[in-house]
Write a structure and sequence with these properties.
The chain contains 3 helices and 7 strands; from the N terminus they run βααββββββα. With 143 residues, the chain is α+β, with helices and mostly antiparallel strands. Strands 1-7-6-5-4-3-2 form a 7-stranded antiparallel β-sheet, with helices on one face.
């Protein structure tokens, strides 16, 4: 199993950025077109991204420092719902917040697509969390 790390500096306070990780409106501002979330340990984490249903549960919610969710896709034999883990670590900086995204337990065949996705979506998170309205997302997974 593999791991991928991404990080971004965001010109917003951790408390503000945190809301973009735990609310349906916040999540869909930067990733996906639909979300249903219950941000408590064991609560539902569901996001539709480019026609794919990412599904899992919240494993840890530590306001405003950390969010950890299980992750996988409906109908996937290689990465079924809840089979990998994504953590979002928020650290206050002089300019706002540093967010580190760590995706663990990725099957080798899933790494390239997730690297592409996280690189795309982490940049969108940085823009959305500063209050920018983003255009509809036309991202699709790389082949």
């Amino acid at each position: 199993m593999a791991e991928h790390r991404s990080s971004v500096e965001i010109a917003a306070a951790p408390e503000r950025v945190f809301e973009y990780l735990i609310t349906a409106d916040g999540i869909t501002a930067w990733m996906g077109d639909w979300a249903q979330v219950e941000p408590t340990p064991g609560g539902e984490f569901s996001v539709n991204i480019a026609g794919y249903g990412a599904r899992g549960t919240f494993l840890e919610v530590d306001r405003p420092r950390r969010v950890i969710v299980s992750w996988g896709f409906e109908g996937s034999a290689t990465l079924p719902p809840g089979s990998s883990t994504v953590s979002f670590e928020l650290t206050a900086t002089a300019l706002g917040t540093r967010v580190e995204v760590v995706h663990t337990d990725l099957p080798e065949g899933e790494v390239a697509g997730h690297v592409d996705g996280w690189q795309h979506f982490v940049g969108r998170l940085a823009l959305a969390a500063t209050g920018r309205n983003l255009p509809a997302d036309d991202w699709t997974p790389s082949a």
